[in-house]
User: Fold DUF4345 domain-containing protein from Croceitalea vernalis.
Amino acid sequence: MTELIKKYATLLIIGLVLSRVIAAIILLAIPNLLTSELPDGGTSTLGTDYLSGGIGYLINIGFIILLSKEMKKEQIKSNLILIMTFFSSLIGVLIFLLSVAQEKYNQPKIGINE
Assistant:
């Protein structure tokens, strides 16, 4: 269980940092990506959170793939966890870890003194 916690904590931090870094690199390469010209001669600029949020959703798809493989291994059948992971990787991973902990806790324990 601790291996899963370490693995997914590291992956969550890497995913968060990676979405911000990739957005910054894209904006350095293409500075006018989020800027558009208005018909009256002005400009409209979107914030960088739109770009990093979109990249975050792509990273969440990677988390969905990882979690689905891990769920097959742990024999957990819940599509709701995968749907929640798409919108928030932190919530999806947290509920997955809680589900794994509950499954491990509910497993029958064999008594040694029998």
